């Protein structure tokens, strides 16, 4: 049996460090008590067996050498492809609408009737977000506050992102952080294979669906 102290000493000798999750957690869900909440149209049926049936969105807390950062992403519930994302130094409805516009563009504007599922954070209940959804024909859906299972694929995605990429790097500047996030999302969409997609990447899986149509 080798002790943790011995392992640490050996790793230090070769200039290596272990990978460890951050030891603090920042809540990114702050509900507006005066807001009205759309119903949960998904009821944990996140994958409805076709593209653009459900889009899943969430925000996670991150940081770089220049301060705290927040990442908002929108994924297709069936293909798992990241359709749109945005990065900002504070949570706001603007970062959500930026991600929405990117997702709509990724689908060529063909998203009317698509369900946009989120938590009940104030940035999702904001009028600006509601207007963006109305403009593009997106149907808003929200899980219960504080119930992670109501948006579990988003939690799983953040875990994948952090353990496979974020925790493995140190970001000196905001620019460096944004560039590496973009590179990883491109990798996730085009290269990273998923067992539930038949060991294909989200982009390759979508191509196979189009070829079969």
From TrEMBL:
Short name of one Pfam family: rve_2
A GO biological-process term:
DNA integration
**Which ranges carry the Integrase catalytic domain?**
34-210
* Gene3D superfamilies per record: Ribonuclease H-like superfamily/Ribonuclease H
The entry lists its GO molecular-function terms as: nucleic acid binding
Q: Which InterPro entries match?
A: Integrase_cat-core (IPR001584), RNaseH-like_sf (IPR012337), RNaseH_sf (IPR036397), Transpos_IS3 (IPR048020), Transposase_IS3/IS150/IS904 (IPR050900)
Q: Give the protein name, as stated in the record.
A: Transposase InsO and inactivated derivatives
